[in-house]
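new request in #modeling-help
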Amino acid sequence: MTEFAQDNLKSNLDNPAAPSVLQWLPAAFLLGVVGIGAALAVTSKGARTFPVGQDVVTGQWMGTYEKNNLDPGVPWRDASVNLWGGLNYRAFGEAREGAVVGKDGWLFTSEEFQTDKTDAVEIAGKVAYIKQVRDDLAKDGAKLVVALIPAKARLYAEDLRAKVPGQTAPLYEAFREHLSKAGIPTPDLLAAMRAAKVQGNLFFHTDTHWTPLGAEVVAQVLAPVVKGLNPDLPAATYSASEKPPVQRSGDLLRYVPVPEGEGPAPDTVQEGVYSRTDDGGGGLLGDVTLAVTLVGTSYSAPSQNNIWHFDGALSKALGTEVLNAAQEGKGPIIPMREYLKSQERKHNPPQVVVWEIPERFLRTRY
Amino acid sequence: MVFSSNVFLFLFLPIFLIVYYLLPFRWRSGWILIGSYALYSWWRLDFLWLLAGVTLAAYFFALAIARSTGARRFQLLTIAVTLNLCALGYFKYANFGISSFNAALTGLGFAPFSWTPILLPIGLSFFIFHAISYLVDIYREEEPPTRNLLDFAAFIALFPHLIAGPVLKYNLLADQFRHRTYILEKFSYGATRFMTGFAKKVLIADTIAPLVTATFGQTNPTLFDSWLGALAYTLQLYFDFSGYSDMAIGLAAMMGFKFPENFNHPYISRSITEFWRRWHMSLSSWLREYLYIGLGGNRKGRVRTYINLALTMVLGGLWHGANWTFILWGTWHGGILALERRMKEAKLWQPSPAWLTIPGTMLLVILGWVMFRADSVADAFRMYRGMIGLNGVSLSDTLAWQVRPSELITMLIAAVLVYVAPVWGQRVGDVGSRLLRPGLAVAATMTLLPLFVLAIMKLSAQSYTPFLYFQF
């Protein structure tokens, strides 16, 4: 016999003890929520912005509209993210997916914890590509130096709550050895940064990136390695100063959406300022050739959020101006691919290319 | 378009309901058809022809079967069912068949057959099953064929059950297309069921989902990893699918329809036979009526009965997806069903206490779910190796950082709901039922309302999460 979902309604209607509020409240509540939600949704900018150039027949238009327009555009989206992110942080000490909460206000990107069975293949592919880049640059007489930036979770393992998977333990050294054996200078930045931890924080508590000090320490380690390749470096002198200390909320705080004061405290930072003090720099019609090019990620790229100024620190440490071809948000591979094909390289052939590669990107496919 | 989405809740549903209730009754089937086709087309417009084609074929073949006599009736039924199965076979199993064939070819040293993979239309298994059941019922003269194409098309496409069931027989709804009652209490009941299903899906199933993905993604899961994953999936699947069914039943009630129940506390079953009377009841019923009985049921002797039971479940497994994992899962359940029947007939099945039979049945169910969830048979056996401790015991560090306290707490709450709800004598989804003691019913409803709002906000805070049963 088939049991129907509302077989009990008849008896409910005949049940004088049944509370009458149940006859109307759920209907009124659902209609109210859906009605108010609909009014807010259809008047939102997201709902009234439509995808262009997407195919309706294959559902592309609908999928794009829902995912890229409506869902992020509903007026309660930010409130929802903050509510649930805040609840999870307060109740369980959890960040939203994408970050891992450490001790004493430290936050880490979950990229530094992720593992997959395809990691070995991906990492081997990266080694092979770096060798290919070395060969490609060598055709023009340029040499490659890799700046392998250790993972924040590796450098500050003592501030983690969750252990980084053991299979990643040998990654930094193993990758560096692969490159060193291939004749690609890859200085041990991990050892240098560990030694420099006494000077101050080399990574921000609340950001995926290094501090200005971290960038400077790495620049100091890289400079003798680059000079050791005997390039002809056009001289340039720089002065370094620091702006007054300010509070800075790092990118990882987005994963802990609680009001300031409830979550990890923002970092305090003194942004470095590197100014060229000689007469060089190209001038109006200057035909300056830069011997060193920096390629890399957001750890190097000139951007609004970049306060670490790795290019400035490297220029000062080398005593020469560095061409910065790093790009934000694309990982280390894509900026290099683009650089190799770029007019920048054609018009300003380098003698040395410093390729900044954060360890956290080694297993990520681009 | 999934029920737990902004586009359904805040665009489709209000427009559909407003127009539905403004229209006179005789136009409502047409509006249901338009709404359901619109909902289906939101996925892809170019597969609407398949839904419409299956509908038209079933409608006209049913009329022809009813007009025919003798062997001609059976011929027509055979053609109609074969056409439906061909559609199902082509879209759902062609990729699997070719890839299995190619694996055999390459194994023998031959070049593989060149093949462009086919896209699986969503809901295909469900609307094909609806069509077949209708055709068989007409053939069996259990009901007369409908001459109202609009009502029939609206039944096949009816959006609450179009994408993921429940699997319904036309005769269960035929009268309701001619006459439905619209009372506020029924709408309220539907709203309660919908909100309950929504909360089950978003607050419980979706919260546990990342843990399931993480555990089943382990290369060498330990004892702890694999059991955690298996238990998490056991709860996720229940709350995802029963949540969907609650939403379907609730939406139908809001439109004046009565749908059959699809779950009845399956995790308190004391045997696998009982489990299949409580889990996905509409599918079990369909398999029994149209497959098991079609194969001869228990009318052809003891051995054939066991074979029929096993075969029904193997085919039921294959219906869930074109993968060897589903075939093995069906074989597992079919084998146990046959064994239980044999033990019962041989009087080897002794009444046992619930504290023994419920965990025992759950163990069998959980072992089955591992195969059901795994991406491949090899992945499933990796989990099984973990479950018996062959990869170590303690939590893997590759998993440890991904296990969130909120997921574990949610699992605990889910388990409590699964086992406490039957004590109340009511379904988990039936919190608004006034068969509960009045105070408890009001308290449950008052708890549900803010949970629904929280679920909407969670939906907006998280990324897109389709229902698990959409893949079938």
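bot summary: Confidence is low (pLDDT under 50) at residues 10-14 of chain A.
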